Structure formats: structure tokens, C-alpha cells
Amino acid sequence: MPPDQTPAPRTDVTFASGDAQCAAWLYLPAGYSPAAPGPIIVMAHGLGGVREERLDAFADRFSAASYACLVFDYRYFGASGGEPRQLLDVASQRADWKAAVSYARSLPEIDPDRVVVWGTSFSSGHTIVTAADDKRIVAAMAQCPFTDGLASGLTMSPLVSAKVTARAVRDVIASRLGKGPVMIPTYGAPGSTALMTSPDAAAGVQALIPEGASYPKDVAARIALQIPREFPGRKAKDVTCPLHVVICERDTVAPPKPTQKHVAKAPNAEIKLYDAGHFDIYVGDWFERNVTEQLDFLTRTVPLA
Description:
Elements: E1 11-17, E2 20-27, E3 38-44, H1 55-64, E4 68-72, H2 90-106, E5 110-120, H3 122-133, E6 139-143, H4 149-153, H5 158-176, E7 183-185, H6 201-206, E8 218-220, H7 223-226, E9 243-248, H8 256-263, E10 269-274, H9 284-301
Helix pairs in contact: 2-3
Protein name: AB hydrolase-1 domain-containing protein
Domain AB hydrolase-1: 41-279
Pfam families: Abhydrolase_6 (PF12697)
């Protein structure tokens, strides 16, 4: 099936996480029933992303191959609830992952022992941690993964890093005073005060947004103080299920060398190296290669029958 034709049928659902409801799309291919439950792929986006930004392209392909999918927005983002809006917090997002997996397992059409976790960029760190902590996860997939916060932070120039840190400190102070968040763009031109400022960041993010659509592209700046202290790649050694990792060798957002070092320690890792940039694998020919190899991984590790 071509990547952007005939969207697969899906249903809008919600599940509780913390003090809010997370919105999700549930894809249930024909043949799934309580009498014949099947596997499901739980999916969420990266840094400040929402489902509409090309996650449906992946889910359409997985669903066409008869895999169920649960594609969700984190609390505070997209169609999900929670205040303040655009609050990007590692602990709450990982709690959302646990809630999403639990919800998927509760569905009568789903085999609770055949849940796959799929992440991209920032969310790939969450999938690695989720798979490491939950030994019932049957397989995990991580593309252009965020694995090493210090390495990602060092991609910024010292001046940009200083400006981002100053804004993050202002946001923390504002939150302690009971004020609204101080925001920061998730992406911007090189040298701007934003979380991603690589030369390909602006065009890369914009290529994910559907034509005519518009989504908030800023987050509470306090996340900039969390990122350098996060090393989800260190948990890769504890992921015992099959782990499919796509590493972009020209990635200027999630540096590839630290990722290779981390995921090589996973006992069942399958590592794919692409001569591509961070955003290339969502669209065009790189998307085709990427999703085709992901489907191959699924059919080998999580067969439908």
C-alpha cells in the first residue's frame, strides 16, 4: 500500500493517566476478536509531537499488515487533557506509556502478552525504558532514538545552551510562584533560542505537519533542565525482548555514536544504520525503507499466527 493512501479504519478512544485522559487512535484490523486476540503496537511521538505528524502514516502501514495499533497523545498535548498545556515532563510521559500499555492489554481483542512498543526520537527513550522495566513487552522498536541527554545537549552551541538554560530557570521559578509556564520553541533556525536548532530541524519538523494544519510547537522550558540528566539508552542492556533500532548516521539531534554504544548492549538488538538525517525517515524513500524493515522485524518477531 502506498504510504499516504487509503487510511486504515480507526476509532477515537481515551484512557486515564494520572489526573487526565489521554486521547488515542485505536486501529483494529479485521479478524481481531475476543475469541482470536492479536498483537498490538503502542505508539507515541517525540519531542512535543502529536499523532497527526506522520504517526498515522506508520500506523496505516502496520494496520494494513493486520497489526492493531494504539497511537496516543501524551497528557498536556494534542487532543489529550491535562493542564498546563504543552508541559513536557519525562516522568509523566513514562507514566503515560505505562497507562497506554495497560489500556491496550485490557482490550478484549488484544493478547495482553503480545504488546509491542514503538517510539521515535524522544519517545524512543521511553520505549527502551518501558521495555526494560516491563518484561511482558514482546518487542520494542526505536527509530532515531534519544538515548543520551548529555550528548544531545552538546549539539547546541554554548551561547544557545546558555539562553535555553536561562529560559528553563525562569520557567521553574514561574512554576514555583504559581504562574503559567515560560515557553520555548521545540525547533528554530540555527542560533535561535529553541530546543532543536540543527540546520535541518525547521524543514524537518514542518515536513511532518499535514498540509493546512497547525499545531503548537512550543513547550514549557523546564524540560531543558531534564534532558541533560536523562540517559534512557543505559536501560538498553536490560531490554530482553527483540529490539529494532534505526540509527540515522547523519543525525544532528540524537547523536548516533552514543546511541550505537548504548543499544549494542541490548541482548536481542537488531540495529539498522541509515545514511540519513534525523527527520528523513518519516517521509519519502527513507520512510519506505524504514517502514518496510520495521514490518519485516514484526513478522519475524511477533507473527500474527
